[in-house]
Amino acid sequence: MEKSIIVVKSITYAMRGQQLLNNYGISAYIERNTGAASKYGCGYSVRVKTSEANRAAEILTSYGIRVVDILPVGGGKS
User: What 3-state DSSP class applies to 78?
Assistant: First the structure.
């Protein structure tokens, strides 16, 4: 299953975002940024299914959480 990470500005936004998305029925997980995502400064992102990434970003934005970028993390195990 392909996953994407939603890069946000702080760990606080990542934690708030995870809870919001879970409340909307989107499985979301906080993870440390590595690779391409680490260039944004914040050490954390919210990981979701790629098929739900755009909807998740819209939800986060509607609650005042600025989405810095959405990056694919490829396929593989869930």
Answer: coil
Positive/negative CA dihedral, 75, 34, 46, 8: negative
CA dist., res. 34 & res. 15, Å (int)? 18
Amino acid sitting at position 26: I
Residues 6/15, Cβ–Cβ less than 8 Å: no
Query: What's the whole-model pTM score?
Result: 0.84
- Place 32 in a pLDDT band, splitting at 50, 70 and 90: confident
Cβ atoms within 10 Å, residue 64: 8
Outline where 1-78 has alpha helix (H).
Answer: 11-23, 53-62
